[in-house]
Amino acid sequence: MPGASADFHAVAPYAGRWVLAGADGAVFLIIDGEFIDESQYDPQTITGITRGGEWLVREDGVVISGFPFWYDETTVRIEEELPPLRAVAALGDEVIVVGDGGLIGRARISEEHECDRRFAAR
Questions:
Q1: How far is it, in rounded angstroms, from Cα 48 to Cα 103?
Q2: Are the CB atoms for 72 and 59 separated by under 8 Å?
Q3: CA separation (Å) from 49 to 2, 68, 73?
Q4: Is residue 4 classed as helix, strand or coil in its secondary structure?
Q5: Contact of 30 with 18, CB cutoff 8 Å
Q6: Mean pLDDT of the chain
Q7: Sheet holding 17-22, edge to edge
C-alpha cells in the first residue's frame, strides 16, 4: 500500500473504514485508499485490535480500552507484568485476550477508569 511504512500486526473494521496497527505504536486509518496516521505516542508494538477500535493489546502485555482508543484521552490502560498479548476479541463490554505461554484472559470495564481482569496461563 503506498504510504505504508510500519510493520502491521492487527487489522479491524472501523466506521466503514479500516484501522491498521503494529510496530512502534503505529495506528493508521485507511480512508478511500489513503493512509491517515493516528499513531500512538507510546512506541510499544500493538498486536491486536477489536472491531471499532475500542480495545487493543500490546506486545508488552498491556490492554487499552477507549472508544476509539486513539482519540480519547480518558482511555483505560491496564498495565502489569504479563507475557506478550497477541490477539483480542470483544463481545459486549468484555474482551478475551490471548498471549504467549498459553495465556487466556478476559477484561471488562466495570466502572469509569476501572477494569476487572482475570488471566490464566496454561
A1: 14
A2: no
A3: 22, 11, 18
A4: coil
A5: yes
A6: 79
A7: 8-14, 17-22, 27-31, 34-37
pLDDT tens, position by position, 12-65: 998 888 888 999 888 888 888 788 888 877 788 999 999 888 888 999 888 888
What the block records as the C-alpha cell of 63 is 490492554
**504510504: which residue's cell?**
3
CA distances from 47 to 60, 81, 85, 112 (A): 9, 17, 7, 25
Note whether 27 and 39 are within 8 A (CB). yes
pTM for this model (two decimals) = 0.78
Is 56:70 a contact under the CB 8 Å cutoff? no
